[in-house]
């Protein structure tokens, strides 16, 4: 069918998601937050994924950047 039905369905789904409020398990949340250390796995993996300008191969970059 046309765009009208598709838009109506998307609007319905968006409205359901907007007003959906699942029950929150506060004990599990508190346990998860209190058991984490400052150097968790996610932070370490993000830190190792960061690259520096030193990793670029020679000749890579914009013209005029050679003096940096």
Please report which band the strand proportion falls in: under 5%, 5-15%, 15-25%, 25-35%, 35-45% or over 45%: under 5%
The count of β-strands is: 0
Low-confidence stretches: none
Largest sheet: none
Silhouette: flat
Compressed to H and E, one letter per element, the order equals: HHH
Q: What is Rg? A: 24 Å
SS field, number of helical segments: 3
Average pLDDT works out at: 76
Structural class: mainly alpha
Helix percent band: 40-55%
Q: Separation of termini?
A: 58 Å
Summary?
Residues 30-68 are annotated as: Disordered. Helices cover 53% and strands 0% of the residues.
Q: What does this protein look like?
A:
Residues 30-47 have a biased composition (Basic and acidic residues). This is DUF3073 domain-containing protein. With 68 residues, this protein is an all-alpha fold. 53% of the residues lie in helices and 0% in strands. It has 3 helices and no strands. It has helices at residues 3-19, 26-35, 41-49.
Topology:
Layout: H1 3-19, H2 26-35, H3 41-49
List key phrases describing it.
68 residues; mainly alpha; flat
């Amino acid at each position: 069918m046309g765009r009208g039905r598709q838009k109506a369905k998307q609007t319905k789904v968006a409205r359901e998601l907007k007003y959906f409020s699942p029950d929150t398990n506060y004990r599990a949340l508190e346990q998860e937050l209190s058991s984490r250390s400052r150097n968790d796995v996610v932070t370490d993996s993000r830190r190792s994924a960061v690259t520096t300008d030193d990793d670029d191969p020679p000749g890579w970059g914009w013209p005029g950047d050679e003096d940096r």
